[in-house]
Amino acid sequence: MPDEYRPNPAIPRNLTHFLDRGSVIALDAALQALAHAGVGAGAGDARRFALVDGLPYRAPGQAAIFVPYGHLVARALGVRGPVTITAGHEASGASAIVAAANLVREGVADVVIAGAAQGLQRPLLDHLYAQGFATRTGAHPFDARHDGFAAAEAAAYVVIESEPHAMARGGTALARIAGAGAVFDPSAEPLELSGAPEAGRAMQAALADAGYLQNQVDLVVSCADGRPASDFAEGYGLRRTFGRHAYFAGVTTVAGALGFALAASAPLSAAMAIEAMARQQSFPIAGFETAEQDLELAYAAETKEETVGTVLVTSLGAGGTNVALVLERC
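-> structure tokens emitted (330 positions)
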């Protein structure tokens, strides 16, 4: 987040003084999501409003969060339904969206706010640099020069609502969660990502849940972030899953332009996927010039006007949590 960032004016100034940076941006993003959806926890039965929040990524030995950001947001919004916190390192935000969709699907809640916020503290940054995960120069996802991601702070939340509830209040849906896949890889070490087979397994699970064939996906918003391990797992996972169609479905990622926001990366990718469907455009991979040898895909090199009706969003988390979402334009 830029140093000149100013909190949402809807957050009382006397409250912001007691909140850390992650808490402020979490509440700010949640308020923006609700305003954009035209809904609020006070607009209906608060017992039918829920919230699912992804835990922010922390360095080993770093102090845990005493009060999860999701609890703060739920208190501020008056949510009285289930409030759930999901783990999964980089994939915790994606896991939150899957859990939220299940709450709506099972009839537990009518409206669920889902996403994650990620602040960057000095111990975390030191850890990311020491492990070689982050680079101090620009990130180059899927590029032959990839040597790490550009760490970023962000908060992103989406509002997931049952169709009958949205229709009853005259709401406008931007996209539909057609399918979701969440898998765990027990062979992944705590600080390592899964390989291509497990990345592909999450994609296959999402497609199966949606009842979609590979050739029905128009765009992939990948979690590839510039780490060779991430780029290879995603690239080869896509090839394993899509076969020949991997050379036709556009592939992009937000990590080159916006940085890699760890826990908040997947909700941010989902928001960009929804924007791509609204604009009927695919957006380019910033920092990408030359594809890694033997990893040719239909990479988005420039903004392109095209039909974007279905988007696959992926997320890989250190330690084996792997998630994929199929989003469909309404």
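Residues 13-169 form a domain with the Peroxisomal Thiolase; Chain A, domain 1 fold (CATH 3.40.47.10).
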